[in-house]
Amino acid sequence: MFRNCHNIRGMKRRKLFEWLGGVLLLGVAVLFSACEDDQADIVFYSGSSLIEEVGTCTNAVSEVTLFMNGRETAEVGIAYGKGAYQAATSDVEIVRVEIVGDRLRLSCGEKEGRAVVMVSDEKGNQAGLWVYTGLGSIECAATGKTAVKAILNGNVIADEALQSMVAEALQGYRPMEEGGTLTFIPQNVEHWLLEGEEGTVKWTRNPMSGESVEGTYRFGYDEQLMGEPMECFLVSCEGEVHRLYLNPDLNRSRETGPVSQYWVEDITAACPEDVLQQLPEQARVAYFMETVTWGGFHVLAGEE
User: Fold this and answer.
1) Could you give the C-alpha distances from 85 to 26, 51, 115, 119, 142, in angstroms and in order?
2) pLDDT digits over 224-260, tens only?
């Protein structure tokens, strides 16, 4: 009897413990779920909405670049947070911030550099976004692929002997060695390929010696070389004037690299007179040079 009573009490005790255990586990689960609901990995994204479909490129961003010469503001979305967002910048002289709903607005301060913008939500979750500011520039690096050709009416003259003579006469002409760079700093990065737009240029002719010059440029269209309008940069550096035609034009939309450009310069004036006399009337001498850029605009080196 005592054994049975003991067994009954034991059963009741076990059931009580099981019930208590279930309540405790439920409480822990509820507590864990509540904590989990409070936690969030805040994500920043470009565009109007976050792209998160499998197999597609995401538009999530971890850094933003602002240019003080034409692209001074930007706006990014905030995803996965718990609302009531607040933002703070590590340096208000570099970047200013504003929260509008679930959007973060950024604008250039008075000086170039980099700063981190911290965004927090009502549950205390935080995320940081690096912001870089400075002058926007695009750098074209010489690949070393060059050629000198005599052309007529926009076409290379099909005379190998004549082309060999021209190439030999101008074999010393090299405005930029392999690895040299031609860097354009427009007055406005948004309009830099509009006719009449101007800016400054840094031309590193020889990367080994560090030889470089600075000057100005003006963008427009010119048909003098090919007989039809071509995009042309009139570059002036320390008394030298270079009329650089772009064929094809610089890619206006691609933000990753590398992207090749093929420059054509009219160097007829540099050709020896005795060689010019052997060319057909109206013929021109052109210098072809390949360069490469890595993506679109970047903060001018040394400005960060």
Assistant:
1) 32, 21, 19, 7, 47
2) 888 888 899 999 998 889 999 986 545 544 555 688 8
- Strand 126-134 relative to strand 63-67: parallel, antiparallel, unpaired? parallel
> What does the alpha-carbon distance between residue 58 and residue 56 come to, in Å, rounded to a whole number?
6
pTM above 0.90, yes or no: no
141, β-bridge pairs = 181, 292
In angstroms, the CA 276 to CA 278 distance is 5
Of 274, 275, 239, 245, whose CA–CA distance to 262 is shortest? 245
Handedness of CA 217, 221, 224, 227 (dihedral sign): positive
Distance CA 179, CA 207 (A): 6
How many beta carbons lie within 10 A of that of residue 207, not counting itself? 16
Residue with tokens 């981190």: 116
- Rounded to whole angstroms, what are the CA distances from 51 to 78, 168, 173? 12, 56, 51
* Dist CA 207 CA 89 (whole Å): 38
What are residue 149's DSSP bridge partners?
286
Query: Tens of pLDDT along 19-43?
Result: 334 433 333 333 333 334 455 689 9
The bridge status of strand 43-45 relative to strand 240-246 is: unpaired
Backbone angles phi, psi at 123, to 5 degrees: -95, 0
